[in-house]
Design brief:
With 360 residues, the protein is mainly alpha-helical. It is built from 18 helices and no strands. The longest helix has 16 residues. 48% of the residues are buried.
């Protein structure tokens, strides 16, 4: 999967699933235009600093922090922001972090502008982290500005914002170019995301070999999602040595946090002939609520044809069937008496399983 991009100054690390996918390009706002033009952020210009969105003690703390860092040269605003995002020695507070990044992003005499801070602020605004009002318009403008200044992190983050939920050739090609620019600058998240695009043939010709190389590159840079994506690519292979690599890369991700990965890992272990490892992987996924893993674990247990395993399999099939997994209903029908089998098959039919419906 593509990941929401990470900022090099380690300001934040948003969830991969938090990447927004706006339907189209968004126009610049008055606030963004004023900030990016270097205009002082003042009430007189009807531009409200982010710290003013906070009340009470938090608002006062944010105000004092911004004033303090703006009075020092070079400004430590971006470094201070990183501490508030990570909760390093202070209470975690993304809103205060955003206020500090907003200050760092402004042009300062003899310092210029911190474009990494602009990009980091854009990511916080795009994700709405910590209750911060989500502002895709401003986020997009910030990333465009950072990218136009040759800040490759901004280019890669801009690709994130522009990536449409469904394939659109023109926009996809622009996103690929942005990710490629970030990857060429050794930004591992951009390499991973470029691989994701090439694996699916979005914005460029489908190239599995190049996608795998990009995942491997991001994995070597210790980007976890790159390692997982590399494992998924290896999982599509039929070569024993590549299936072994798939198992190695996927094993750390088979957990309660990512139970769907357990199903992929289980399938890999099955094809390697590792029945117990496959059952264990499916079991971990099922325990974490991934119902297809429950179905797959049941199917593998049922192949033993022992009464004990078939009873366990039926229990797993029923659980998945009750939750709407049609194939599990069909599988349950193979382990029960004809009357119950008809009921399970009817449920499988209603859930769209092909070839199971009785003639009308």
């Amino acid at each position: 999967m593509p990941v929401a991009l990470l900022v090099a100054l380690a300001v934040l690390s948003p969830s991969p699933d938090a990447r927004p996918a706006p339907e189209g390009l968004l126009p610049p706002t008055r606030r963004a235009t004023a900030l990016l033009a270097g205009t002082p952020v003042t009430e007189e210009r009807a531009v409200r600093p982010l710290w003013k969105g906070l009340e009470g003690e938090r608002g006062l703390r944010a105000y004092r922090l911004v004033r303090e860092c703006e009075s020092r040269s070079p400004s430590p605003c971006a470094v201070m922001a990183g501490k508030y995002v990570r909760g390093a020695g202070v209470a975690k507070d993304e809103w205060i972090a955003a206020a500090l990044l907003e200050s760092a992003c402004k042009v300062k005499e003899n310092e210029g502008r911190d474009y990494k801070a602009c990009s980091a602020l854009g990511i916080l605004l795009a994700t709405g982290a910590g209750g911060l009002p989500r502002d895709l318009t401003w986020a997009l403008e910030l990333q465009r500005w950072a990218c136009s200044s040759s800040e490759t992190i901004g280019c890669a983050a801009l690709g994130d914002l522009l990536l449409p939920a469904q394939p659109e050739p023109t926009k996809d090609a622009e996103v690929v170019a942005l990710y490629r620019r970030g990857c060429d600058a050794d930004y591992s998240a951009a390499c991973n995301n470029l691989g994701w695009m090439l694996e699916r043939g979005r914005g460029a010709a489908r190239d599995l070999a190049q996608a795998r190389a990009l995942y491997e590159r991001s994995c070597k840079a210790k980007l976890a999602v790159g390692c997982k994506n590399l494992g998924v690519v290896y999982a599509a292979s039929t070569r024993p040595e590549e299936l072994a690599e798939a198992a190695r890369y996927l094993e750390p991700f088979c957990s309660a946090a990512e139970p769907a990965t357990c199903s992929v890992l289980g399938s890999v272990e099955e094809r390697r002939g590792e029945r117990q490892r496959a059952l264990a992987a499916y079991g971990r996924g099922c325990s974490a609520g991934h119902l297809r893993s429950c179905n797959n674990q049941g199917f593998l247990l049922g192949l033993s044809h022992t009464p004990e395993d078939e009873a366990r399999a039926l229990s797993l099939f029923e659980r998945a069937c009750d939750a709407g997994v049609g194939l599990a209903c069909a599988n349950a029908a193979t382990l029960v008496a004809p009357d119950r089998a008809r009921t399970f098959n009817a449920r499988a039919c209603a859930l769209g399983v092909q070839g199971i419906c009785e003639p009308q």
